[in-house]
Structure formats: C-alpha cells, structure tokens
Amino acid sequence: MRKLTILKSLVDFIWIITCIPLIPILLFFAVYIFINDEAISLFINSGDGAMDFSSVWTKVFLILLFVLIYVVIYCVYLFRKTLRTFQQRKPFSTAVIDNFNTIGKLLVISGISFSLLVFSYKLVFKAKFEISLGVTPYLGIVCLGLFFLVLSEVFKIAKTAKEENELTV
Amino acid sequence: MPILINLDVMLAKRKMQSNELADLVGITAANLSILKTGKAKAIRFSTLEAICKALDCQPADILEFHEHP
C-alpha cells in the first residue's frame, strides 16, 4: 500500500498548494474584474493590445473559465475523498463507485467545455477559426473523464462479484 | 429468486437444531442462516453434499423451483 500513500501525499500536496489558494483567489477575481477592467489582462493575453477588456463578453468568458476551474478543483476533492476510502480498506463501497462516476462525468463535461470555450475565444476575440486535431490538453481531460467512468463501471462489477462471493454458502 | 430453500422443513422433520446442522456441515451459523432465509446467491456442491449427508436426504428435498415465488 506504499503506492497509495505516495499518491495520497501527492494529491494532498496539489490540494493544499494549488486548489485551496485558488478557491478564494478566483472568487476575488470573479468580483474584481467587474470593478477594474485591467485585471482581465492578468488572465487574457491580448497580444496586439486591440482587445476590449470592458466588454461584457470578455467577463462572461472569464467567469465561465473560473467555473470550469472550480469543477476541476471539485474533482480533485472527490479524488482525495476516494483515496481516503481506499486507505480505510473499503475499495468496493458505493461511495467509491459514485465518486468515480461523478469525477468522470464532470471531467468529460469540463474537457468539452474547455475546448468549446477556447474555440469561441479564438473565434470571437482573435477572429481566428482554429480547430486543433492533434493531442490537446482538453482531449486529455475528456480521456481521463472517460477512464474514470470505465473505472466506475469496473468497480460496480467487482462489487457485485464480491457480494455474490460473500453470499455463496 | 425462484429457487426456494426448504431447509427449515427438513430440520423440523429430522428434529435437528440449526446450530447442530451448522456444526455437522462445517459452516458457520450465520452462513446457514443466509441459506435458510433465501439470501444466498449460490451454494457449493460440497456444502449441498454435506447437508444432504447430515439430514439424510436428497438435494430435491432441500431445493425447490417455483417460477412465481
């Protein structure tokens, strides 16, 4: 179980160093971009400087981005919770199956939303019609989400097999 | 499940206690209770053989098929 301890430590490290500070920071900026338009330049690189930061669409785009980041943070939280259940030696509990299912669905949704958001950002703000067909990080997120969904199904089958084995006299 | 377990009837016929049968068969009283209450999903041939030997009966005396229980 040393591998599980290492994984749990790494996820805890990511949670403490990245996720916890991000929650109030993003919340702060979600409000601050409506007060000071210049704050948007911290998140969006306009390049030629021709971008209109006072536009409502820019703010809506950023808020959607923040929401998606919150969704990913929630996935990390659920994964941490699942690892804790593994440490308690309850790998076939309903909570694990439900958590994997939720993580999978959320990651698939956020992966697709991220790619749509970036596509629309390039189309609206940079007037560029760009479709990436190669390996993109968003595709990776969708694949990870599908992997978690498959894992949830596998755990469901394993739970049924375990119950049947326990009820064999 | 359409398979009914008539272990209670056989125990009453043989005037035997559940604990006694569990000891003879070599399974726990809890597992025998699972079998008696019909919660069991499967039964090993070895267990069935031991029960039949202990109760001096046939598998058909213990197991019954009912399409609509």
From TrEMBL, chain A:
<keyword id="KW-1133">Transmembrane helix</keyword>
<feature type="transmembrane region" description="Helical">
    <location>
        <begin position="55"/>
        <end position="79"/>
    </location>
</feature>
<dbReference type="Pfam" id="PF11188">
    <property type="entry name" value="DUF2975"/>
</dbReference>
<protein>
    <submittedName>
        <fullName>DUF2975 domain-containing protein</fullName>
    </submittedName>
</protein>
<feature type="transmembrane region" description="Helical">
    <location>
        <begin position="131"/>
        <end position="151"/>
    </location>
</feature>
<dbReference type="InterPro" id="IPR021354">
    <property type="entry name" value="DUF2975"/>
</dbReference>
<keyword id="KW-0812">Transmembrane</keyword>
<feature type="transmembrane region" description="Helical">
    <location>
        <begin position="12"/>
        <end position="35"/>
    </location>
</feature>
<feature type="transmembrane region" description="Helical">
    <location>
        <begin position="100"/>
        <end position="119"/>
    </location>
</feature>
<keyword id="KW-0472">Membrane</keyword>
UniProtKB/TrEMBL annotation, chain B:
<dbReference type="Pfam" id="PF13443">
    <property type="entry name" value="HTH_26"/>
</dbReference>
<dbReference type="InterPro" id="IPR010982">
    <property type="entry name" value="Lambda_DNA-bd_dom_sf"/>
</dbReference>
<dbReference type="GO" id="GO:0003677">
    <property type="term" value="F:DNA binding"/>
</dbReference>
<protein>
    <submittedName>
        <fullName>Helix-turn-helix transcriptional regulator</fullName>
    </submittedName>
</protein>
<feature type="domain" description="HTH cro/C1-type">
    <location>
        <begin position="13"/>
        <end position="62"/>
    </location>
</feature>
<dbReference type="InterPro" id="IPR001387">
    <property type="entry name" value="Cro/C1-type_HTH"/>
</dbReference>
